[in-house]
Amino acid sequence: MTDPVVTKLHAWLKEHESELLADYQTMLRFPSIEGPAEPNAPFGRANRDALDFALAKANEWGMKTTDLEGFCGFAEFGSGERMVGVFGHLDVVPVGPGWKFEPFDATIHEGYVYARGATDDKGPTMAAFYAARALQVSFPEIGSRIRIVFGCDEESGFECIHRYTRTEESPTFGIAPDAGWPLIHAEKGITSLVVRVPKIRGDMELLELTGGQRPNIVIDSGTAKVRVSAGARAHVEAKIADGWDRNIATRWDGDVLSIDAVGKAAHGSWPFGGDNAIIRILRFLMDIAPLSVQEAFVEMFELTYLGGEGLGIDGRDDISYLTCNLGVVTTEETAIDMLFNIRYPVTWKGEDLFAKTRTHLATLALGAELVSTTDSTPLYFPLDHPLVKTVCEVYVEETGDTSRKPGVMGGGTYARAVPNAVAIGTGWLGDGEAHQTDERCAVESLFKMSRIYAHILYRLATLP
Length: 464
Hints:
Layout: H1 4-15, H2 17-28, H3 45-60, E1 64-68, E2 72-78, E3 83-89, E4 107-109, E5 112-114, H4 122-138, E6 145-151, H5 159-167, E7 173-179, E8 183-187, E9 189-198, E10 204-211, E11 221-228, H6 233-241, E12 248-253, E13 256-262, H7 277-288, H8 291-302, E14 323-331, E15 335-344, H9 350-361, E16 369-376, E17 379-380, H10 386-399, E18 407-409, E19 421-425, E20 440-442, H11 443-461
Parallel strand pairs: 3-6, 3-7, 7-19, 8-18
Antiparallel strand pairs: 1-2, 2-6, 4-5, 5-20, 8-17, 8-19, 9-15, 9-16, 10-11, 11-13, 12-13, 14-15
């Protein structure tokens, strides 16, 4: 028999679907990519505006709100010692070219809302916000506190959630609506490695190599310039004429060859799902390189292997495996800096990964060195944890789907930074993937999420 409270929650959400959709579209229209810091807006004006919209809505609903200097904010209602937290984010990654609709217009077409942030993470965050509102109205005597946290820097550093955890209460149970169904019980470790490669000299001199917007996005366009010696010109021209990659364009300016490449963006936790434009360029340079410098270009290309073999860090444990995304490449005065975004197995340690990288780089003739690192340690919850079991039970009750099991992900969510929290599911088949062109979410998916989230919050708030 369906719990009468759940029935009331679903009924309220059904009655307010048009309002949820309208507020969702409003939120999507804020171009909340990280921008220049301003007073009380450390991640730019658009992120501040998005946060202000959420907090104003919460105030309108009679929730208590707190603004943490623009890093993030939260809304809360209810009473009691237990606090159930929802951790969503309002910032988005850059949009890139090739969109069917304007990425911040929130256009509805054939049942889908198209916009950057439609699925990551404004849609789930707004669905959870309305789920909380349904609980506030339908079950005011709940006996727990419900807190909705709105982050503004999830995509570019987690400074928002680190600001939160420095001074604010940890949840009794927390959910981050930013993953796959029913939930993610293990998140891989995430590290960024900057490998500095001296510019290759000789018959084909590497002058420039540039591409990428963020470490956690597969590079969708890139450029390079090489200076070719007179003695190697005929060899290089013949190789170009025989080239097979139609996503590579070249042009000569005297003895300098310029190269442009087009790839396909994807989330950096799944580099196999994209097509890295800089890797295309490096493979092309390896193919056309004169014999005198070919080894150097081969080694540089091999650094980019998606499984981490080129950095000496490939491997897996019983739960997960390593992936390696070349996310940003910049040209410095005497070297090329290559920023890799690594997702490593949940039982590994970042410090061991760094040591392996340094050891491997020392074996190469390239002269590459590891110049900087960051590390976010893995997250792991056993399958019998009450938080895991409750979310899974609700998902089955709401959908009837027993085929999906708790998953492991390479993406990093707020759950890894907040005690007692897991990342839970968002969209379904047909909804757009995070960080890709034409990101989208079905209108019905938005409504369905809100119902499931409301049920989850109710159950977590009333666990024995």
